[in-house]
């Protein structure tokens, strides 16, 4: 069998490196000419999918949807398409792994599980949508058979998964997101539920809208409940959504190890409600990981006792903004960037929140800082929670968050005059 690695993003580029290291026959393809040129420099064979035969297995970048014309063409030729996650289990079928998915909170829940297991000196690795390509863990090293993989799985990855032999498959929550790709909330949910299909234990959040269907279809199912969180929690984990993450992590951990578990020393993750050093008494919160209105709503809820100057915007993905309405009373003013700026302006104006359109993130930070200084610095928080994808102006949410950090760090004693 030969392989085609389609889409040379971070997670599957390392698949090509793995195939090359193992002397498999493979080709690569990317719609962008620049990526194809980089592949040629690595001496990888670049092959257009129209030349495929039915004996070729296509390993997809998560960014390639099932409706992609070249993928449709490949499937018409009889090619089988899978994600890097599925291909990993094909090559390492005895891997001990748990999978965690959901519309939000999955990265932090994975990190909490990893943190607690590491405290008990249980060998474990985090990978997947978390930002660590799963094949990078085996490319240059041997992994002990006892190692437990903690996999964060997105709907994009699960879309092309057919059999994941997980010890635990956990689905934390569901809110409308990526519907421009998945078609409907029901279609999105069914893709997320693939995490259960071959798992030894299914775990599902108590607020999941299809909870009864999951309980009906999967016999060994555990409901994730908010009252499972280990108390007391450190101050940065006491917001409602953080408590839910801690509760989910605790239930997952309890199925893996007798414990006890504590999150007191867990410091949180970069770009997830990350507090930066104050400037002139003003607080700054970097929540660049917020790529949906629901995630932004979680940040606004967590800061409900603050007076918020909110920077938002990026690539809007047809998500419902109404989830933000309950949390708008604490927003003093909004600052919109990116291709979604006009939509946010119309939404916030409709709900009587002043908002400024800003051409760049730097302009937004400067304007928000000036407005916070004029308001009451010691009671002001500038929250960068975009509620949108980042790829209109940034490489990814990490790049976006790093830019925000750098802008805040560069604020001097005198702010530039904005025209």
**Global morphology:** globular
Q: Could you tell me the mean pLDDT?
A: 94
Largest sheet: 6 strands, parallel
How many separate helices? 15
Low-confidence stretches: none
Q: What is the strand tally? A: 16
- What proportion of the residues is helical, as a percent range? 25-40%
Strand order, sheet with most strands: 6-7-5-8-9-10
Summarize the structure in words.
By secondary structure, the protein is of the alpha/beta class. Helices cover 34% and strands 19% of the residues. It contains 15 helices and 16 strands. The protein has helices at 10-21, 33-41, 69-76, 84-91, 106-119, 136-139, 155-158, 179-182, 185-192, 211-217, 240-256, 293-302, 341-350, 361-375, 397-409, and strands at residues 2-6, 26-29, 56-60, 80-83, 96-101, 124-128, 148-152, 168-171, 201-205, 221-224, 274-279, 282-286, 307-312, 331-336, 355-357, 380-384. The strands form three sheets. A six-stranded parallel sheet has the order 6-7-5-8-9-10, sandwiched between helices. The longest helix has 17 residues, at 240-256. The protein is globular, with a radius of gyration of 22 Å. The mean pLDDT is 94.
């Amino acid at each position: 069998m030969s392989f085609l690695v389609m889409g040379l993003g971070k997670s599957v580029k390392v698949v090509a490196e793995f195939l090359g290291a193992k002397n498999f026959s493979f080709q690569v393809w990317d719609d962008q000419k620049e990526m194809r040129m980089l592949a040629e420099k690595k001496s990888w064979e670049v092959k257009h999918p129209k030349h495929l035969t039915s004996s070729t297995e296509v390993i997809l970048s998560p960014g390639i949807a099932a409706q992609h014309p070249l993928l449709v063409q490949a499937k018409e030729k009889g090619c089988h398409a899978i994600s890097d996650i599925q291909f990993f289990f094909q090559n390492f079928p005895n891997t001990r792994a748990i999978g965690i998915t959901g519309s939000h909170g999955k990265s932090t829940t994975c990190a909490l599980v990893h943190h607690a297991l590491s405290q008990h000196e249980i060998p474990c690795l985090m990978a997947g949508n978390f930002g660590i390509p799963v094949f990078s863990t085996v490319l240059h090293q041997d992994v002990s058979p006892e190692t437990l993989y903690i996999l964060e799985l997105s709907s994009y990855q699960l879309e092309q998964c057919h059999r994941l032999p997980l010890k635990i498959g956990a689905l934390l929550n569901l809110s409308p997101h990526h519907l421009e790709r998945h078609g409907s909330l029901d279609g999105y949910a069914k893709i997320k539920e693939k995490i259960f299909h071959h798992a030894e234990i299914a775990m599902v959040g108590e607020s999941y809208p299809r909870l009864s269907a999951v309980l009906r279809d999967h016999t060994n199912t555990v409901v994730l409940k908010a009252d499972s969180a280990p108390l007391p929690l450190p101050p940065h984990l006491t917001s409602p959504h953080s408590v839910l993450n801690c509760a989910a992590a605790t239930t997952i951990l309890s199925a893996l190890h007798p414990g006890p578990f504590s999150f007191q020393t867990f410091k949180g993750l970069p770009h997830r409600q990350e507090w930066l050093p104050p400037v002139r008494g003003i607080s700054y919160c970097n929540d660049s990981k917020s790529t949906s209105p629901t995630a932004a709503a979680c940040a606004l809820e967590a800061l409900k006792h603050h007076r918020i100057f909110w920077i938002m915007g990026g690539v809007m993905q047809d998500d419902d903004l109404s989830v933000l309405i309950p949390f708008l009373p604490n927003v003093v003013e909004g600052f919109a960037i990116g291709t979604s700026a006009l939509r946010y302006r119309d939404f916030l104006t409709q709900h009587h929140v002043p908002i400024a359109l800003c051409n760049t993130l730097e302009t937004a930070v400067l304007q928000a800082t000036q407005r916070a200084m004029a308001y009451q610095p010691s009671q002001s928080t500038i929250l960068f929670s975009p509620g949108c994808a980042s790829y209109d102006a940034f490489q990814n949410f990490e790049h976006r968050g790093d830019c925000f950090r750098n802008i805040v760090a560069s604020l001097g004693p005198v702010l530039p005059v904005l025209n």
